[in-house]
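Follow-up to my post from last week.
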Amino acid sequence: MTAPWPVAELDPVRRMRVLAASIPGVMYTEEHLRIPYERVWAYVDDVETSIPALITDIRSFRVVGRDTAAPDPAEKRLTAKAAGLLGNRGDFEVVLKPGWCLMQSRLVIGGMAATPEGDGTRFAGCGGLRFAGGRLLVAMVAATGGGHRMIKRLRQELDD
Amino acid sequence: MAETGEAAPRPPDRFAIAADLVRRAQRGDAVAMNDLLDLLTPYVARLCGPIALQDSADAAQEALLAVFQGLRNVRDPGALYGWVRTTAVREAVRVARRNQHQIPAELDDVPAAGSPELAADIRDVLGRLSPEHRAILVLREIEGLDEKAAADLLTISPGTAKSRLSRAKSTFRKAWTS
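User reply:
Got it. Predicted complex:
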């Protein structure tokens, strides 16, 4: 039997579902956007602009390094410095590739994923805190619609 | 974690990389989980594709969910690939059964050699088999397991495995020689 066997396709949003469901205490939100995928991801990909606009706790997000040894040429491994509204600072590792953005600091995990869906985009976001008591805080944010607020801001930024 | 059968030959560095990533993922490192997803997804996709067919994306997602949610219990990262294989095949059969869109034809009813239907690609032939028959084919033809190991993984008797494999292969032979 030499014919090619069918292979399953796992789009970035499905990948994000797996990741978010596997990290304890991570909040996850997923919605359909009536905005073409290319436009959504072109915006998200510019993380220095998109992260502070979408995550209101972050005042600035500055890329300070890039690992050029990433095995996937479409993937960027970045180091970024984030400054919070209260003056708090954090160094983030960022994995960025089409439809996929994962960020991690010593205390925070965040991610966004997108895939084309019809004429629009299926968009997912997740976030969590990596310290004792973090789960409770994240649960409170989730209970008050924190994830949906982030996606609402994305819609506003893209004038949907 | 149940390891069954002989592992398919793989570069040894992949095992070492996976073992390191598992340890880091168990400590809550999301970047390590990202890298482990990159490493395991192609393997899971190859196993789920031929078994779950049109539901293969659901099956791969369910399989990876089961794997990643079970990572914290992994004591021997060296046995990771065997466990992933077992999980992926079982999830693919479960999802394919759950979403079964058509009742598979009895293998004896498969169109005769020369039928235009059998001139189509491998997917069409696979679609005429039950998920259980597709699973045994995948384990033998893609993973290279022997019949006993495949039977253990699918929790069926070696006789049933042998019979399913024989009938599934016969279907393929007819399709390929038509």
